[in-house]
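Got a spare moment? Tell me how you read both lines of this record:
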Amino acid sequence: MCVAMFGEALVDDFGSEQVVGGAPFNAARNLAALGTPALMITRIGQDANGAAVRAEFERYGMPQWGLQTDPAWPTGRVVVERGRQGHAFHILPGQAYDHIEAESARAAFAPAKPQVLYFGTLAQRHLTSRTALIELLDASQATRYLDLNLREGQYTERSVYESLRHADILKVNEDELAALLSWYAPNGPQLVRAHDPELPPACSLLIEKFKLQAMVVTLGPRGAMYIAADGRIIREHGNEEPYKLVDTVGAGDAFSAVFLHGHVQGWDLALTMARANAFAGAVCSLSGAVPQDLAFYEPWTQRWQAAAEGATR
């Protein structure tokens, strides 16, 4: 029941503070803490930031078979500037995660036989990592989960198209959905808000075009929606339990982690969506994408375990 995650592990550099992040690595750490083995395939440099990333592998008890070390390129870094209007993120070019080697990636991936392969677009901006990913996608029978995660200036329409062509399940937020519809369904429904009645038929156009199994659209505090190729729709509304909003960093990654955890555990889909939405809301009450204290996960895993035991009695 392993999930493989391909992509960036990096450090968000606030100047006075460095915080380990990267969407795939955020989701991988959450998965590992929730009890689903996560094989993270990434590349770091021989530097202090690389040591910080490796320490997170160890803190979460994650295997390091897919962790490559680069002798020349630095560990991924994003320079974060605080401002009155929020944070500005500067994603630096020429980072170690741009140079994930295909042979090493295959050597880590094959024996794990993952049930799911998670990928995004940022780690595809350089040919080396993109080639490694495509080789894994072409060779694997795993369910391909694409968390599009578009970052300005870090993708091309062509890389997005190729990613969609390889995906089985696509996760997007409202802005990403709007971008996809402008490219691939310009004459389709025009969404005023992504939770309006036009969302399912709009997503169905993309599902049909790219032969997807399903799409997941996250709607922030309004919840999320699942639209399947067979017409099934699950609408998960905002959380009943209010959380004090600290920041939304990592909320989408938290949602992905629980969605994938439920997928490999065989949870009912509606239950998976509800739990993913609730967990993402709870992460918004934290500062940062993952908790500093791993005890944060215990009430969630205990509650889900108790519910499973109760259902089998």
The chain has one domain: 3-312. The two ends are 24 Å apart (CA to CA). The chain has ten helices and 13 strands. The mean pLDDT is 91.
